Every structure is written in structure tokens, then in C-alpha cells.
Amino acid sequence: MSAVASTSDLPSPAVLLRAFLRVTLDDIVPKTRANVAAGSKVFGASVHRKAPGLEVVTVGTNTETESPLLHGEIQTIQQFYQIPRDERPEARDTVFFCTHEPCSLCLSGITWGGWNVFYYLFTYEDTRDAFDIPHDINILEQVFRVPSTCAHESSSDLAARPLYNRSNAFFTSASCADLLAQVADDSPEKDELKALWQEVRSVYGELSGTYQANKGDKGIPMA
Ligand SMILES: [Zn+2]
């Protein structure tokens, strides 16, 4: 296994970003809207063939009203592996996309599922601050971030340590902001992609408001 999973077999950043924003608006949001109305969270995901053109293989959204483990990514992984073997691409020949940076459960799910690359739209900080859902960061800090035994590590060093390895021997991950930053400022695609992203932000602002207003007591341990 190499030190860091490669992304050399992927289309350009602009092509990737457009595909992720479009699948969000066209496929993920309608499903999310239905599940949020029932009390589930706003998280969704999709799987795309790397070649020839990022075709959508499956799309899933959070279904926590059924089980607290059915996060958007886990639901999507389950759907992917329910596709008959002879019709299903290998996970390594596909790209995983998450509307939100995956939590510890979903990071493990993506790894165990065989994906070597994933992208996400909203960061952990967005999820905590704009969506008012703090569990991703809390769980990573409380369960996984073991303080160093080195005497020289201060509490601020500990706090500054990344919450997971964003590029490692299993996968390479990046945010959609990273993709956008790689599109040249003078490219005509940049404004188009920024406008599309703004449309996505506005829809998620609305979905988040609905979730927070309706979540009530649906039996989800971490609502
Ligand atoms: Zn998750």
C-alpha cells in the first residue's frame, strides 16, 4: 500500500466540482427534503464513476429515524453494495461525495467500503456553526484524539492537531473549497461554479431551518 492514495485518475477540479454541485441540487436535495420532513438530518452523499464522465451510481441521504447509524454516507454505501455484483463498479473505480465532511463512523465506512478518494462540501466547522450540529467534532475529539505522552505537547498543540488524516494510505480527501481554489480566477467557469455553490448554500440554509424546527423527539440519540 502506497503512503498516500493517488487522485491522478480523476477529471479536472472544475469538472469534479460541477458534478458534485449538480448532483446535490438535482438528486440529493429532493431526497433530503423528504427525510428532513420526517425528522432526519440534512446529510447526503453520492457515488460517481471516475470514468468516463462522473456518472452517478447511487445517491443516499440520512435516515436516522430508522437507525442512528444510517448517516447519509452509510445509507449510500449500503445502496451501492445492494447493486448486483455484475452491475456494480469497483469502489476504487468510483469517487465518493459527501455533502458534509464525514463523521468518524462515515470515515470508517468509506474506508471499509473500499473508496480511495472522497470530497465534501461543508466542513466540520460549517456543520457545527451553520447547521448547529456539533457531534462530528465532539466525537473525534473525545473518542479518538488521544493526548500525546510527549511532555512538550501543550493543550493548544493538542487542539491544533488535525482531527483525522485527510490523506493517508487508504484515501485522499479534499473539500469542494479546495477544488474551487484550483480553478483559475480568470476562467469563465469560476463565476458559474460560485453561483451554483451559492444556490446550494441557500437550499441548505432552508433545509437546516426545517430540521432544527421539526427535529423534536424522534428517538435519535444525537439530534
Ligand atoms: Zn456520519
From TrEMBL:
What range(s) does the CMP/dCMP-type deaminase domain occupy? 53-115
Database matches in Pfam families: dCMP_cyt_deam_1 (PF00383)
Q: Which Gene3D superfamilies match?
A: Cytidine Deaminase, domain 2 (3.40.140.10)
Q: Which InterPro entries match?
A: CMP_dCMP_dom, Cytidine_deaminase-like
The GO terms describing molecular function are: catalytic activity
Any one Gene Ontology BP term? nucleobase-containing compound metabolic process
Question: What is the recorded name of this protein?
Answer: CMP/dCMP-type deaminase domain-containing protein
Source organism per entry reads Rhodotorula diobovata
